[in-house]
Amino acid sequence: MNSAIPLREYALVFATAVAVTFVVTGIVRIVARKIGAVTPIRDRDVHSVPTPRLGGVAVYIGVAAAFLMARNLPTLKDAFAGNTEILAVLIAGGLICLVGVLDDRFDLDAISKLAGQILAAGLLVVFGVQWLIIQLPGSAEDGPTTLVFGRNEQVIITVLLTVLLINAMNFIDGLDGLLAGVALISAAATFIFSVHQYTTSTAASAAPPPLMAAALAGACIGFLPHNFFPAKIFMGDSGAMFIGLLMAAAISSASFKVDPSLFGLRTNIALLAPLIVALAVVFIPVLDFLLAVIRRTMAGKSPLTADKRHLHHRMLAIGHSHRQAVLIFYLWALVVAGGAVSLALVARWQDMIYWWLASVALALVVSVQPLLRAQSRKQRRERLEADARALGGSINLQKRSSPSRTKAEGTDV
Q1: What are the start and end residues of every segment in region (Disordered) (predicted)?
Q2: HEC secondary structure over 85-121
């Protein structure tokens, strides 16, 4: 396998996904309107006009075109040598995209969608995309511990991760451009991490993850011009579920396939680096998903019941505009995913901690800025009211004292 990063080939794959997705999205938008795959105005939605969905079909076609391009490139064809992971993504992704299309058009019930998700995740496992081992830190004397999963554990872990990511990505698809942007950042982080594996490993199994990530990143960029506020087309369940499945496949494929000593770190953190990156790239959607499940369960509702209390809804509620809320989520995705990748790949990770904490502080300030402005306005209003009351009291005193002075002046006259 080549030790040099085939940047031109990755750029060509990326550009293919961008161009194909951008062009096909315009066609899909027309088709969606003709077949009635249009999102109506609902209480929980923030859009104000009926908008076509099925955008995920264009994303899937863009990713498939990128894979086809890679299949014919001198170096990236390694991703197809001796394994079926890319084929797994195309087959399982096609199935989950079809389930999403049916839901976008006919509003499937939750059980039917879950069955489709489990079936698609199972197809990934059948074609070899699965978690095999986890390396855990150990003592200096004993060294690291390798936890090898049995066949049943591999199936359960991979299916659970895939279903979790499918639904987590679907949960955050509530604002124009939100899902595509967060997925783009997550794919970029996965690419940076996994391409390091690709260039330091001699195993062909290290080739598919960066290819998956590059194709997904390109498809998201190609889709964003159509989807950023105000959106002309939505991802729909077809896009959200396909992106979740592709992210799960890339993370599962990238994790624990290379000796951690190949990374810049030489400490126990190196052993956890793949897990840290995997958790970071899905942190925001999974956090929103878990909060929604807890909130709805405590309210006695189904965890799959839709509401208007997601994290992006809360950003709007505290005073951010639609675009501001989306950009803030981009910022948080950059902070979390970027910090994790730095921790995994930078030798002096201790120095990065300070920069990461500063980034977190900046993101917090930006996130709560409307609350800070509202508090500042409230304090200013209270000061003005206090000054007005004080001034009013002074005027009243002057009015009460004026007749006395007039009477006194009249007596003197």
Answers
A1: 393-413
A2: HHHHHHHHHHHHHHHHHHHHHHCCCHHHHHHHHHHHH
Name the helix (H) or strand (E) containing 286: helix 283-298
Residue 100 pLDDT class (50, 70, 90 cuts): very high
2 known member of a binding site: no
- Residue linked to tokens 């990156």: 277
Q: What does the alpha-carbon distance between residue 89 and residue 67 come to, in Å, rounded to a whole number?
A: 10
> Cα–Cα–Cα angle for 50, 96, 219, nearest 5°?
70
One-character DSSP codes across 316-338: HHTT--HHHHHHHHHHHHHHHHH
Question: Which run of H or of E encompasses 163?
Answer: helix 151-171
Q: Which of 28, 53, 184 is nearest to 106 (CA)?
A: 53
Per-residue model confidence (pLDDT) at position 71: 95
Rg (CA), the chain: 27
* DSSP secondary structure of 380-397: HHHHHHHHHHHHHHHHHH
Q: Which residue has the higher pLDDT, 133 or 157?
A: 157
Decide if 42 contacts 234 (C-beta within 8 A).
Answer: no
pTM of the model: 0.82
The three-class DSSP label of residue 51 is strand
Residue 162: alpha-carbon gap to chain centroid: 14
Q: Which residues pair with 146 in a beta bridge?
A: 135
Q: Read off the pLDDT of residues 79-91 as tens digits, 9 standing for 90 and up.
A: 888 789 999 999 9
Give which of 331, 330, 17, 324 is closest to 182, Cα–Cα: 330
Separation between Cα atoms, residue 176 and residue 245, nearest integer Å: 21
Residue in the structure block whose two tokens are 């970027």: 338
Through-space distance between the first and last CA atoms of the chain, rounded to whole angstroms: 113
The structure tokens listed for 101 are 């299309």
Task: Determine the Cα–Cα distance for residues 197 and 274; give it in Å rounded to an integer.
Answer: 10
Residue 170 labeled ligand binder: yes
For residue 99, give the nearest of 84, 86, 118 by alpha carbon.
118
133-136 and 51-52 as β-strands: parallel, antiparallel, unpaired? unpaired
* Bridge partners, 148 (sequence order): 133
